[in-house]
Amino acid sequence: MQGRIKWVEGRTFVAESGSGHAVVIDGPTEHGGRDLGPSPMELVLLGTGGCTAFDVLDILRKQRQAVTDCQVELEAERAPDPPRVFTRITMRFVVTGRGLSRPAVEREVELRETPAT
After folding, report:
1. What is the Cα–Cα distance from 100 to 43, expressed in whole angstroms?
2. Is the pTM of this model over 0.70?
3. Which of 19, 53, 54, 101 is the most exposed place for a label (fewest CB within 10 A)?
4. Mean pLDDT for each consecutive 10-residue tract of the chain (117 residues)?
5. Residues 62, 28 contacting (CB under 8 angstroms)
6. Torsion of CA 102, 106, 108, 110, to 10 degrees
């Protein structure tokens, strides 16, 4: 997997994945950005949720679970001082479908839990 980040101006960057998809990354105006896109940390949070949802959905489909919708609600806390890393990420899964096995869904979500250290 590859990617490239290109600085445009101020706090604006264009990120391009190895597969050729691009996204604008920017910061809020109070940090010198123009608020043209998600911040780098927002992308980390969204990527974490997206990767987890992708895995859960993939395994449930392999188990022939009839999933019709999967949403992940994310909430994160960050350290107050630089580097302002995530100190806690909470994911709430909402998985719906026809005849879903609740234990199967819960098991797949729980397998992806990583306790904060």
Report:
1. 31
2. yes
3. 19
4. 95 96 96 94 96 95 96 97 95 96 92 69
5. no
6. -170
